[in-house]
Design brief:
The protein contains 4 helices and 9 strands; from the N terminus they run ααββββααβββββ. By secondary structure, it is α+β, with helices and mostly antiparallel strands. Strands 1, 2, 3, 4, 5, 6, 7, 8 and 9 form a 9-stranded antiparallel beta sheet that branches.
Length: 189
């Protein structure tokens, strides 16, 4: 750029600021901020994670979480209520709103609800232990009461990038064991 051209551009900019004064500069800044605010708010909004979905479900339906599973824009959360009833809830991933899909008197013929209620490690604690053992985002957590050998644990799926890893968390000790077989994400979650 030619030196005289720089001088003309600089003088024109200075004249514009002097003519408009500080108010014009402030108005320009405010207009710029107004244009970027919605974009910043949209990017700051975070989806409800698995732990948030479990907490929201328990707030609406107090009890013990038996499973959490993400399906598109909702979390499916199963809760065994303090009254022994089973509730299937959905939690919107954007708003955190909880909806009851089904609540019934779930007959506990096999004793799983009692074992779940007696577990020292909750679903929420299992999620934390799983993420500590294998970093990523929890995609699902499910109570598993293996009748064959009497073991009780939480099966937690942790997604990191395109990989989903199964982590088993012992319901008594909280010890997390990462499964030796990772699987590619099937895209359904």
């Amino acid at each position: 750029m030619h030196p005289k051209h720089k001088a003309y551009v600089g003088a024109a900019a200075a004249a514009l600021l002097i003519a408009g004064g500080p108010a014009a500069a402030a108005a320009a800044h405010t207009a710029d901020a107004a244009r970027t605010a919605p974009a910043a708010a949209a990017s700051a909004r975070a989806d409800v994670d698995a732990a948030g979905a479990a907490a929201a479900a328990l707030k609406k339906y107090p009890g013990v979480v038996s499973s959490v599973d993400r399906d598109g824009a909702v979390w499916h959360v199963d809760v065994i209520g303090k009254n022994g009833k089973h509730a299937e809830l959905t939690v919107d991933t954007r708003s955190g709103k909880v909806f009851t899909e089904n609540a019934d008197d779930d007959s506990d013929d096999d004793g799983q609800n009692k074992a779940l209620a007696a577990a020292k490690v909750t679903a929420q604690q299992a999620m934390k232990a799983a993420v500590a053992a294998h970093s990523g985002q929890v995609r699902s957590v499910e109570w598993d009461d293996d009748d064959d050998n009497g073991s009780r644990y939480w099966n937690v799926e942790v997604q990191s990038g395109d990989k989903t890893t199964n982590v088993h968390v012992d319901a008594a000790s909280g010890k997390a064991t990462v499964s030796t077989s990772d699987s590619d994400d099937d895209g359904g979650n």
